Amino acid sequence: MADTIKIEIVSPEKLVLSEEAQSVSVPGQEGYFTVMGEHAPVMSILKPGFISVLSTSGTQTYYVQGGFADISPDGVTILAEHAKTGADFDKSEIEAAITIAQQELSKAEELADKDLAQNVLDGWKNLLLEAAQSGTSGAH
Amino acid sequence: MPSLKDLKNRIASVKSTQKITRAMQMVAAAKLRKAQERAEAARPYAERMETVLASMGRSYATRDDAPALLKGTGKEDVHLLLVATAERGLCGGFNSSIARMARDHARELVAAGKTVKILCVGKKGHDALKRLFEDQIMDLITFREVKQIAYANAQEVGGKILAMFENGEFDVATLFYSRFKSVISQIPTAQQLIPAHFEKGEGDEERAYDYEPDEGVILDDLLPRNVSVQIFRALLENGAGEMGAKMSAMDNATRNAGEMIDKLTLSFNRQRQAQITKELIEIISGAEAL
């Protein structure tokens, strides 16, 4: 299929993800940006935040604690020291993070801050959702 | 000539030694598989980091504003040797070959009039070097209590080195470890960590990259991280190598014990037969004398 992009997320301990995706959004140093197929080559430092990978099978969200993205026409390589999926977190951890994010959101005054806080909140909510899904599917 | 009872005791003791070495060999084999998987899983990260840094570093290294981690401090007076070995012995020449390489390197540097500082990661390297380089050894970091080396452990070591570098305590850092080539072959390797050193890659076409925020900031972020990553890789390779070396050392020990048991059993049987013969002769000659 045309216009897909190969995405690889690697942590020092293992290859976390390697697949073809339609788009990938990453937390760049200067804000979130989305990468699709045939993107111009970019190297960027990542801030702590969420990587969402949109592929034919749905969206997957990963939390990274900072890292580095190497984007070339061949694909996206993300080097992250800690890359976690919803299943790697405890539910309580995510819920605690959501509470914090909500507080941040209510405190934020400027539009840019608000956007960022909303983004963080959404990311954690996505993780919670995925954690719940993988929890139920894991039980069967 | 040992008596029959002595021989019997010796056979029993060699047999129990053989049991222990065989058990250790099997434990090492099981651990080796895990360690090998971990070392292989860690490779993609380290390799990608290297390619990214190499492509950026080569064009950047000659510039005046290049970070010190890349171009060095401009001097080569104080060398830091980071010697990574295993925590436990009984793995053949594994630890001693790393220690020997570090020792030779240190001697060369001292002979050339440089100052040498040694930082040991792993107890065995410390044991091997402490008599020769008592004054030069700065510290020993052990992960004896750590069951499985995690990235955080490597970060701890990396942070320490970077802090020393910031304080200007050394100019060049070299990491000694054993590269895991196969179960029977581990190659002691010296790798220069600071200033970062890249192999000249061939056919690396230069891509017109956009940098966000900019090249210098990215390098400043990546280079310190690269130090930890390289240390992590070295620790994992060491972990796999140690188990491989232990496995073959214990295999040898088991085989040697088997040979020894055969020899002892042979002389035990000979002696037993000789004694029977002797007793028979005594009985016969006693009967003839009547």
List keywords for this structure.
heterodimer; A: 140 residues; alpha+beta; ATP Synthase, domain 1; 2 domains; eight-stranded mixed sheet; 2 helices; 8 strands; 45% strand; globular; B: 290 residues; alpha/beta; Helix Hairpins; Pyruvate Kinase, Chain: A, domain 1; 6 helices
CA gyration radius of chain B, whole angstroms = 28 Å
- What's the helix-strand series of chain A? EEEEEEEEHH
Shape, principal axes of CA atoms of chain A: globular
Can you say what the CATH homologous superfamily of the largest domain in chain B is?
Answer: ATP synthase, F1 complex, gamma subunit
Estimated helix fraction of chain B: 55-70%
Radius of gyration based on Cα positions of chain A: 15 Å
N-to-C terminal Cα separation of chain A, in Å?
33 Å
Count of distinct strands of chain A: 8
Query: What structural class should be given to the helix and strand makeup of chain B?
Result: alpha/beta
On the 0-100 scale, what is the average pLDDT of chain A? 80
How many domains make up the coordinates of chain B? 2
Structural class, judged by helices and strands of chain A?
alpha+beta
Distance between the termini of chain B: 33 Å
Strand portion of chain A: over 45%
Name the CATH architecture of the largest domain in chain A. Answer: Sandwich
- The CATH C-level class name of the largest domain in chain A: Mainly Beta
Main-sheet strand order of chain B equals: 3-2-1-4-5
Quaternary status of these chains?
A: heterodimer
The H-and-E topology of chain B, N to C, reads as: HHEHEHEHEEEH
Task: Give a quick summary of the entry.
The complex is a heterodimer of chains A (140) and B (290). Chain A has 140 residues and is α+β, with helices and mostly antiparallel strands.
